[in-house]
From TrEMBL, chains A, B:
Binding region for DNA: 38-57
Pfam families: TetR_N
InterPro entries associated with the record: Homeodomain-like_sf (IPR009057), HTH-type_TetR-like_transc_reg (IPR050109), HTH_TetR (IPR001647), Tet_transcr_reg_TetR-rel_C_sf (IPR036271)
Keywords associated with the record: DNA-binding
Ranges of residues in domain HTH tetR-type: 15-75
Protein name, UniProt field: HTH tetR-type domain-containing protein
Length: 198, 198
DNA sequence: GTCTATAAGGTGATAGAC
DNA sequence: GTCTATCACCTTATAGAC
């Protein structure tokens, strides 16, 4: 059972290889995009053969899924902590700021997160993207006594898209002022959870 | 020279075949995404062989580029007219509204436009995406005498991302209220070209 | 348990039949 | 001028050597 993908008790070297493969996959997605990833590419970077990769993971899809989950887990941990520390009223802003910060500090993770959502590859439930933010928005409105003048879901969709776009532009043009864009983004969408007739 | 991609004077049947191939490519991108497109897929839909496709277009990349240009041209025509009719002060709002309207009315075109930007495939100059809107924003600020409190570029990046996200959600969930989301989006970003200390 | 050798199928592109 | 037959490559995955 050593070749199980979700093996609970993996040996030391097994876990090391798995981690290495995942790292290489993340790097590859960053450089060539989701579609540009192949087993040979991963294997070459890791200094092993394609089949060796397929020993540690049952299939190619399992490899990129594992890589995605790794990236997602780090993001969720970072954003989750920031949101918890902020409290309900400031949670939405903390969500946006921490997500932008984390992915700008881990540029390699950005493309994978974005393509996992927009791309047709690895088609996931899109509600996983906007639902967390939508909940924070509803909670913030309640905590502030703000009248919910518009759907929290569509607000979350809008804000999420804006975040992605800013991150993508930071990737494509290193000279783009991501900090200023982040501030502007926050200022624009604050009425969603703050107050305004809109 | 009949097999030229950009042949100026193509025969009738040539043009018909080209159009048919382009239509099938657009449909295929819509269904399987940019990465899911193959010559065999296109050929199968068109009822011809791969090589027949490659007679009309020199390469696979040329096929999808032609399909993209076709989609882009229709979008630009629609948005361009709306913007011209609106006048400088209302141009940004007309841009956003007409783009949302056009792509919601031509759902098949949506995924191609979005993946052409975010994806690593067909990597284009990203400034082509935000520059037009950024110019409209600058012009609107001038026409209204509004102080440019923030970068028009980053504003255009934010707005463009929000548009994409709303369109994508409309694709993924037909029950999603795209009209309401469009209104909310406009209301949120209006301060960019209207007035506000932000 | 770890990985090499090999297979089976799909890809984009070409040479040449009609 | 239009398209069929073919090619060389690269993909994922498996069987079995060590």
């Amino acid at each position: 059972m050593a070749s199980m993908d979700s093996g609970k008790a993996a040996t030391f070297t097994q876990q090391a290889r798995r981690d290495q493969i995942i790292d290489m996959t993340i790097a590859l997605v960053d450089e060539k995009g989701y579609a540009g990833v192949s087993l040979s590419g991963i294997a070459e970077r890791a200094g092993i053969t394609k089949a060796a990769v397929l020993y540690h993971f049952s299939t190619k899809a399992a490899v990129v899924e594992a890589a995605y989950q790794h990236v997602l887990q780090l993001l969720v941990a970072h954003v989750g902590k920031a949101v918890d520390d902020a409290g309900p009223a400031q949670a939405p802003e903390a969500y946006v700021r921490s997500m932008l910060r984390h992915l700008r500090e881990n540029r390699q993770h950005t493309r994978m997160m974005i393509e996992a959502m927009s791309g047709h590859e690895g088609r996931r439930d899109t509600s996983a993207r906007w639902r967390p933010l939508a909940e924070l928005i509803r909670a913030a409105r309640a905590a502030r006594g703000v009248d919910p003048h518009a759907s929290a879901r569509s607000a979350a969709v809008i804000i999420g898209g804006a975040i992605d776009s800013v991150l993508l532009e930071c990737l494509n043009d290193p000279d783009f002022d991501g900090d200023a864009a982040a501030d502007q983004l926050i200022n624009l969408v604050r009425p969603v959870w703050s107050a305004e007739s809109a």
